[in-house]
Amino acid sequence: MALLEIRNLHARVAAPGGREILKGVNLNIDSGEVHAIMGKNGSGKSTLCQVLAGRETYEVTAGEVFYDGKDLLAQSAEERAREGIFLAFQYPVEIPGVSTSYFLKAAVNAVRKHQGQSELDAMEFLKLVKEKQSMLEIEQSFMNRAVNEGFSGGEKKRNEVFQMAVMNPRLGLLDETDSGLDIDALQTVAAGINKLHQQDSQRALLVVTHYQRLLNYVVPDFVHVMIEGQIVESGGKELAMELEKRGYAWVEQESRR
Amino acid sequence: MSLLDKPLLDRSVGRMPSMTVQDITVARWLSEFHRRGAARFEQLGWPGRDQEYWRHTNFAPIINTRFTESQSAVVHSSALDAHRFSENEAAIELVFFNGFYQPHLSRLSPINGLTVQTLGAGGATSTGDDPADAALLERHLGQYASMESNPFAALNAGQFRDGAVIHVQRGVSIDKPIHVLFYASAAPDGSPMINHPRLLVVAGEDAQLSLVESYVGDAGGGVYFTNAVTEISAGAGSFIDHCRLQREDAGALHVAGFEVDLQERANFISHAATLGGKLTRNNLNVILNGERAEATLNGLVVISGSQHVDNHTLLHHEKAHCPSHELYKHVLADRATAVFKGQIFVQKDAQKTDSKQSSKSLLLSDEATMNSQPALEIYADDVKCTHGSTIGPVDEEAVFYLRSRGISLDAARHLLTYAFAADITRRIKVAPVRRRVEDFMANQHGLPQDLRITDLGQHDEKAR
């Protein structure tokens, strides 16, 4: 049984006359696998991530999604998170007035409580955080700053991966985590992602990206190409290189046939 | 007007024989002051909605109620205890019940350079060198809270029968806050009662103090009306950190005139939290009356049900080179209504004025109403004045972000509301005030225990 099974997923913007964005997505992800979805802007990659994470601004009009054998679409966003799905946002939200430390502790304990584990106290939480901080080269002061407030683009993305490390999910959805990063930051983030993957061989990742660049560091088991709300081509990591060389036009042509 | 039917108490009669000449002078002066206030109120009458300054609030619940005047009474109630500060938290604490000083509940320890006088008929209680300083009263009382155009100020002037005058002498720093607690109630038989808190604070040149005014009460299911006037005179180079914590009863009507006069280089910081009461109207008027004076006004309004709060503030820039900063935040639930009218007045000579005003409102319900109005009147040509106003619901993007981390929908909304207010609470330097506001926010918005914020409200030393 696949960890995540997406069958013929259709979704539209949840508004009167909202545009259909996902037009029949099929995808299986097994535990421990790293999948990459590539595609041009507007192809529906980010929408797929948001729908999987439970964003209510999108309405699922058809199809099914099973996570760990259970109907994912029947679960609220917070339930999905507590069940081990983590979305690293393309545009992380600033939350003035809430310290990163407070926010993360609340999040970790919400998940632990749900999973029947004891909640972490301040000391235990600090220990957990310290370990992950060094892995992602995150400064101590970071924890006392309001969530994402005044962070640079790179800091925000690093914060997402850091949060993922602390939350320890079974399925990580990384939505363009590479965008807006310079090469040094990209390497740090990629190293962090790889470590996460190594630490738990059962953890699955879905990496959404525009460019092949990130995939030089985070090597996928499978690469999928998304065009106009559908996965039209799937292959191994060599597909990413081919896309980098030849662009998306040839896939588009092939998919029309 | 029924309120004023009974004759004014003559202070020169019925006084203890031990009164000093100065006491008698003060009593006579006050008696004349009351007479002027009462007469002025008779002339002005209650404000009408045709008057621009008053039109945002319907004063009918005040005008149409027959109030009894509160009488001097000694209260023995543990109800006040929750609102008092510990010895560590305050240098001195003055407790008033329905406008009358409660010596047995107050804590007055002698502090060099600090003089406290109370204004009750039982004789002025005072600490410090001046038993009753007639000259100080004459120089300051009623000088800032003008009874000429404000009927509530006139009514207070006519009717208050007790109060406090706090004088911090030149160059003196009081290291802990001065707490003045005003507790109010309905009449013993449950009928509506009116009380008139009166406070005058005079800070001498280069004096430094932190002042907390708490307004709380218990209407016992009935109604009371608190009609308060506070005047502050800040001498040259003085520094005053002021907190006003209003947690009145659900049946409370509250009108407050708060007038501040800043001499050159004086620095005044106000933190005003309006967290309770049925109807509230606050007038906070600050006159920057000397060059390089500075004023910071921070406000927080958190109301629900059908509560109404109307904050009118005025930053009157009279002299040059004065900065002023103003940030008011409102959290409105249910059918609550709030008004923020922020006036900035820049006199012709007040060049290089630098004034920033911001009003932000969070609407937790479609039925809540916020009315935010900046009003800038500028007669100088070399000034910087900015204002901004935002009104909106909880940010759904942020709610989703929190939910995607496992935090429940309700908790996410509560947390964001708390965080919105924390922008103000973290600026409050006086810990017992900050803690009370945070606790109120946490309770009010049902923040679950496991999300109760203890490390979030860290006091930000740099914020002001």
General description of the model:
The complex is a heterodimer of chains A (257) and B (464). With 257 residues, chain A is α/β, with parallel strands linked by helices. Chain A contains 8 helices and 12 strands. Chain A has helices at 45-53, 77-82, 100-114, 122-135, 153-167, 183-199, 237-246, 249-256; strands at 4-13, 20-29, 34-38, 58-67, 70-71, 85-88, 95-99, 146-147, 171-175, 204-209, 222-227, 230-235. Chain A has a 6-stranded mixed sheet with strand order 6-9-10-3-11-12, sandwiched between helices. Chain A has a 4-stranded antiparallel sheet with strand order 2-1-4-5. Chain A has a two-stranded antiparallel ribbon with strand order 7-8. Chain A starts with a strand and ends with a helix. The mean pLDDT of chain A is 92. Chain B has helices spanning 21-44, 60-63, 134-140, 151-159, 396-403, 409-425, 431-444, and strands at 68-69, 92-97, 100-101, 114-118, 126-127, 164-168, 178-185, 193-195, 198-203, 208-218, 224-234, 239-247, 252-262, 267-276, 279-288, 294-303, 308-317, 323-332, 337-346, 354-363, 369-378, 384-392. Chain B is 18% helix and 37% strand. The termini of chain B are far apart. Mean pLDDT of chain B is 89; it is low at 1-17 and 454-464. With 464 residues, chain B is α/β, with parallel strands linked by helices. The interface between A and B is medium-sized, with 38 and 30 residues.
